[in-house]
Design goal:
A hairpin with a 2-residue loop joins strand 10 and strand 11. The strands form three sheets. The chain has a seven-stranded mixed sheet, sandwiched between helices. Strands 7-8 form a two-stranded antiparallel ribbon. It starts with a helix and ends with a helix. It is α/β, with parallel strands linked by helices and about 400 residues long. The chain has helices at about 1-15, 40-45, 60-75, 95-110, 125-135, 150-155, 195-210, 210-225, 255-275, 290-300, 305-325, 330-340, 350-360, 390-395, 395-409; strands at about 20-25, 30-35, 55-60, 80-85, 115-120, 140-145, 160-165, 170-175, 180-185, 370-375, 380-385. It has two domains: about 1-190, Rossmann fold, CATH 3.40.50; about 195-409, Dehydroquinate synthase-like, alpha domain, CATH 1.20.1090. Helix 7 packs parallel to helix 11 (about 305-325), helix 8 runs antiparallel to helix 9 (about 255-275) and helix 10 crosses helix 11 (about 305-325). The chain is globular and about 60 Å long. The structure holds nicotinamide-adenine-dinucleotide. Nicotinamide-adenine-dinucleotide binds near residues 160 and 198.
């Protein structure tokens, strides 16, 4: 009853709140609904695509404790028959064992193909829920409710699902598009700073490969961060050893900033995914910075965050492709300054030789070659084939260059 009265009072606010709907026109099209304070309206929004049925909310323990009850109540009020399945936080739980537990739970509760799953959480929850949905009874529908900045702009769009094996990330997976994505940006207010920074790196990646207006927006936003009164005197660069200090200063990102960045990123990702749903060519562009980024993550045994590793990867790949004369300009200094202002300070004391070993093991290698997305000018990019050996030749040189940039900034 309490839930119902809260819901009704909230509903009134909701009707006055704007949200935008984007159509993601893949082979099975779906809508992406972006707004503020949408969680109490999840049930209603789901009713627009689905009559009452069984719904299983899949979430991690932390996200469920923050938002699970609101989402569950909203679905109950909209006459869905709601279940929940909680997974402990962390990437190690994005595993086949967890998928088996989800599937057993669905089976025990007689879920069938007319029922739906809801992924409430970040990319980890989105990936595993999407994968379970793609194989349970040969495929049931699922809805994404991304609660991290990164999943809102990237992981929740495009239908890539998957789980990790002990020795390789995302080695098992499928393409399975969601039926709906609902992003309510107030959920980012509880995100740790590190997760905000991870999202900013992915947004910067999207911008630099495809949209100069987003790039200059982010550049301006990054410059504003230094005006923060709570910016500590600590110089971010001095903090870098092999790990990054996460508490440099709190980022100032307004709701308008979030809306603008997400809207632009949805447009970029949708365009790329529509062109190449199964990652045969254009979609590789989204891996800008990720070849070296993944090598750095593995090298650090995942003590360096994904965002920081990709940030460093973008800088180093940009430098290497200029040295290889695939492009005329390298954007490493520009990128470094923006990342630095956001408090994303790539650790520089990396061992080039060890890093090279991880590049050699990259799972995207095709007969000793890697397809490297390369920025030709801000907002434009291309894919070039480079041999692993050639790329590794530039690792130590680009690490030296990073040292030089550090003194310039
Ligand atoms: N499918 C794709 O296209 C794609 C793209 C990029 C990344 N990914 C995958 O996404 C995963 C990373 O996703 P992520 O960066 O969103 O991290 P995540 O899902 O692991 O979440 C990070 C942390 O934030 C917490 N969290 C989530 N939302 C919160 C909130 N609103 N408030 C407070 N805490 C919150 C979680 O509990 C977790 O501890 C990886 O598994 C990666 O492989 C997938």
């Amino acid at each position: 009853m309490y839930g119902l009265s809260l819901y009704l009072s909230y509903k009134k606010i909701m009707t006055e709140t704007n949200f935008q709907t984007f159509n993601i026109n893949t082979t099975t099209p779906y809508n992406y609904i972006l707004g503020n304070s949408l969680l109490w309206d999840i049930g209603n929004l789901c009713r627009k695509i689905k009559n009452p049925c069984k719904v299983c909310i899949i979430s991690d323990e932390k996200v469920f404790s923050l938002y699970g009850n609101v989402v569950q109540t909203s679905l109950d009020v909209a006459y869905f028959h709601t279940y929940s399945f909680k997974i402990p936080e962390g990437e190690t739980n994005k595993s086949l064992n967890t998928v088996e537990s989800i599937i057993s739970f669905l089976n025990e509760n007689n879920f069938n193909r007319d029922d739906i799953l809801i992924a409430l959480g970040g990319g980890m929850i989105g990936d595993i829920t999407g994968f379970a949905a793609s194989i349970y009874m040969r495929g049931i529908n699922f809805i994404q409710i991304p609660t991290t900045f990164l999943s809102a702009i990237d992981a929740s769009i495009g239908g890539k699902t998957g789980v990790n094996l002990k020795y390789a990330k995302n080695l098992i997976g499928s393409f399975h598009q969601p039926s709906l994505v609902i992003c309510s940006i107030e959920t980012f207010r509880t995100l740790p700073q590190e997760d905000l920074r991870n999202g900013l790196v992915e947004a910067l990646k999207m911008a630099i490969i495809k949209d100069s207006s987003l790039f200059y927006y982010l550049k301006k936003l990054s410059a504003k961060q230094h005006l923060r009164q709570d910016f500590t005197q600590e110089h971010p660069i001095e903090n870098t050893s092999n790990t990054i200090s996460q508490q440099l200063y709190n980022l100032k990102i307004s709701s308008d900033d979030f809306m603008f960045i997400i809207e632009k990123s949805i447009a970029i990702k949708t365009k790329i995914v529509i062109e190449d749903e199964k990652e045969q060519h254009t979609r590789v562009l989204l891996n800008f910075g990720h070849t070296l980024g993944h090598a750095i993550e593995s090298y650090s045994k995942f003590t360096i965050s994904h965002g920081t590793a990709v940030a460093l990867g973008m800088i180093m790949e940009s430098f290497a492709m200029k040295q290889l004369e695939f492009v005329k300009t390298d954007f490493s200094i520009d990128l470094y300054k923006i990342l630095y202002n956001f408090g994303i300070t790539p650790p520089i004391s990396l061992d080039a030789k060890l890093l090279e070993n991880f590049i050699q093991k990259d799972k995207k290698n095709r007969e000793n070659h890697i397809n490297i997305p390369t920025v030709t000018q801000i907002g434009e990019s291309n894919i070039y084939k480079v041999s692993k050996n050639t790329l590794t030749e530039f690792v130590s040189e680009s690490l030296n260059i990073l040292e030089e940039i550090k003194h310039e900034v």
